[in-house]
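Final report, Chapter 2: Outcomes

The project's central promise was a pipeline that accepts a single protein chain and returns its three-dimensional structure in a standardized token representation, suitable for archiving and comparison. That pipeline is now operational. To close this chapter, we reproduce one record exactly as it appears in the project archive, with the input sequence first and the structure output second.
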Amino acid sequence: LLARYRVPAFIFVNKMDQPGIKRSLILEQLKNRLSDMVCDFTEPDPEEIALCDERLMNEFLESGVLDKQLMADMIAQRRLFPCFFGSALKLTGIRELLNGLQQYVKAGKYPKEFGARVFKIARDAQGNRLTYMKVTGGVLRSRMQISENEKINQIRIYSGEKYTTVNELEAGGICAAVGLSETRPGQPIGSDKGSCVPMLEPVLTYSLILPPGVEAVQLLPKLRQLEEEEPELHIAWDERHAQIQIQVMGAVQIEILQSQIAERFGVQVSFGTGSIVYKETIQNTVEGVGHFEPLRHYAEVHLLMEPQERGSGMSYEARCSEDILDKNWQRLVMTHLCERVHTGVLTGSPLTDMKITLVAGRAHQKHTEGGDFRQATYRAVRQGLMQAESVLLEPYYEFLLEVPQEAVGRAMSDLERMQAEFNHAGSFDKNGTTLGMQQITGKVSVAALGDYQSKVAAYTRGEGRLSCRMCGYAPCHNEQEVIEAFGYDAQHDTLNPSSSVFCSHGAGMSVEWHEVFEHMHLDSVLAGSQKNTDGSVQAFRKHDAGRTVSETFMGTEEVDEILRQTYFANSRGDSNPRKKMSGRKKQSDDKVVYKGTENVLNKGAQYLLVDGYNIIYAWPHLNELARSNMDAARGRLLDIMCNYQAMKKCCLIVVFDAYRVQGHDTEFFDYHNIHVVFTKQAETADRYIEKFAHEHGRKDFVRVATSDGMEQVIIRGQGCNLVSAREFEQEVEQLEKQIREEYLGKLY
């Protein structure tokens, strides 16, 4: 790790006061196993140090002394490693070590602009959150605003458990800041733009077993505090099994975690059997579509899902034109993509090595809410995964196995059984002489390796050593076996549905993932997509660009033509049509006074527009009928409207939504003495009524029966008359009572 991050190193060998310890033997081992540049600085040999570098050698030959500045440069460049020997208990060698640090460590050069790097999160005895950081530029000041939402309340300089507070700290200083709640280890602040050091990645997951009387919902927030402090500790809530899952590196970390939970929170926990942390990815590009449209909700999301290089993790991007989907909705989709760990469809394991791009979406101007896009986004991810060729990944270790010569055969046999990739490099000193311990290096899956360390210790009688380093994820060597063991059924995972919800006859209809493309409202991006000038993807046909779901209307001339063609459809004949009743005046003996007809100023034709599904769901007897049979409820409403029109003699139009039907055009027909309209694709009933009201509200007498509050505001602004669903129901009941009275009066 020190070599990877270019960190200079000093070595101190402790306990040199023990009997039988030879400094020369230890130094030789350090040179063989670490670097030839390790040199003794407790009793330095100038010639040995000079041999580490040609420039240092020339300087030594010319002057007979070593240039300390040149030595400091070599140490900073990791071309020289000072080694000190001593006994810390007796302070032997300590003075030499401190002097060496003072002489050979070069002070860093820091920029004037403020910057810092977080390296630790902790909490004090009062529970205050502490952010430990090193100032890498400028000056850190108390009450400094370091981000849009956070500022530092206090700067502490710790010495053990005690601390002093300061008002400012210059570059190079280390402190604990109070008042920050969103920081994390490795995070750069201000001008510090260095890359974050990658943390160790846990490869084992354990279920947390709680004692009686302790609820998971109470302990989970406390465990999140430990997760902040230990970046390699991952806490997850398994909703399927209602358990807390903890991902760690191994058994030692489990023991430490148990003691931490007991000490910090007073809870004695235990852990179930550990299992491997698998992940999933895809190996082909797919388009995921999610649609969420129950009654009075609307959202559709199209995501391009592409495989990425191993170890790249998850990345998200938006390449959707604002003409297609407003920026605020796009931000919401991106938030929902990033806010959770998405799981695969093979075992329900987390996704990785994928890029998900928002390429298209659609919202409704009135009915879309934020939660609609959350549902549509989640469903789009799952729908894409159901189409894709998924791959199960498992973690792999790079290992170094050191065993005596006589145990090499056993070790190689074990590694072959684990299906490991390995090389027997042997073990040699710098002169090429074979050493007693043999080295085997290679790569093996974590699942196959298991607890092999204990076996190595057993068959080598404690002489063998196994060291492992996480090297990433690769395709699982026994994928089918693991999938069967998980028994995960993606299609019946109610917490992660792959289906979409479309509106059908005024109610939500679930559509399975493989049928979504037949019902979606936008064209497929992968099927014949075009690129816009700004590089974004044109997700639907050119003549649809810029529209939202509620911006398409039937032309006024078309509406008038429909009315002209159908108004006398129920007349006794073309030569003897019924007398037009739109200008009918109320007689003094009329028994019913209809809401919205008082003080009528409009002198044109009389229209009554009924929002069909709105009325059905508002009238209890129709709503109850709709639960079992929507067609029956719709037919019953039309029959009631026929009776109403027979008495009122107005031009009555009942409008139903049909905008969810792909490619559907406006459908209109006569039902006895009334007119029925089913709207076209991308047009809702309320928008159709609003357009009609806008064109006819000022010149004709238009009444609208609906309880949609927003629609009422718009229609009232067009000079139309309104009647709520409840008032309209009372009006119809009173009218039906009048019909019965008149009919019985004539009968008797």
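Archive annotation: Confidence is low (pLDDT under 50) at residues 430-434, 528-602.
This record, like all others produced under the grant, will remain available to the consortium after the project formally closes.
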